[in-house]
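Re-run requested by the PI after the first attempt was lost when the workstation crashed. Everything re-entered from the original request form. Ligand of interest: S-adenosylmethionine.
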Amino acid sequence: MARLSANLFNYLDEYHLSFQTLLDNGLKSRECRYKEDAIQMIGKLDLESRSEVRVLSIGSGNGDVDFHFINALVDKYTAIHYTVVEPANGPIDKFKRLIESNKDKWNGVNFTFHVQEVEEYLEEGGTSDKYDVIHACHSLYRFRDAENTLRYLYNILSMEGMLLIRVIKDESHSRYQTLLDNGLKSRECRYREDAIKMIGKLDLESRNEVRVLSILLDPAMVGNRMLDFLTVVLNFRNSRPPDEVEDCLRYFRDECCYVKANEIMFDYAEEDIIIWRKQHAQ
Ligand SMILES: C[S@@+](CC[C@H](N)C(=O)[O-])C[C@H]1O[C@@H](n2cnc3c(N)ncnc32)[C@H](O)[C@@H]1O
């Protein structure tokens, strides 16, 4: 009989610790691109007539990604209202420390935090707010009803506003998808294909920008937490039968990784889907 395993998504603190191991083992390198990307994206906004630019960040984590958006925003606009919706307390505390250490540069930014899931935020009246920029970076997979939530988000976008959905590009993960789909994982929205399908249904203008990143992944050294994140199973190494763990590690090494300069690399490609709210798309 198949052994039951705990879905990592149901354990927010553990989930964040696991995600951190990916960042610490190479994924942080993605941020080299984020600064320039944020400047380009914010540069395309045409919101000069607004007295205040309103931003909604969904699933911010500790604000590492927001950091680049906020810097790009304050370089262009003087008054910004920045709303964060993030269900985990620990990362929000870190985000607040980030604000404190940037308080001089970010003094034109008024922050509001909602420690809740995006669905709760919208149900409690968030839909009465309008935003000029909404971004959900790697949080779409966690939405309870991704399609309806995307629709809501589009509806609360102001005219000329921008909705950015950053997701994992499915090709990079499809190689171990088969393994993870083996009853261990349940995700309503998987990766880019699902997001594009939903966005297509919304009949929006969308544009893809692809980045490919790598993290170091030596299966012999993979820590328990990193393994938890990659398999989406809490305590994978100790809660699954030893032969399955062995198989999984072999699978990562032989099917998913490649060697570069004596290092074992694992592609973590991500994609930005950008949706503009234009008059003609009404
Ligand atoms: C993989 S992390 C991404 C963090 C950050 N945006 C980044 O790109 O590094 C996903 C984040 O979504 C948050 N999250 C989980 N469920 C959510 C929900 N239903 N609504 C909003 N955020 C959620 C998690 O707590 C977590 O901080």
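Saved to the shared folder this time. Residues 12, 19, 58-61, 64-65, 85-88, 91, 117-119, 137-139, 142-143 surround S-adenosylmethionine (CB under 6 Å).
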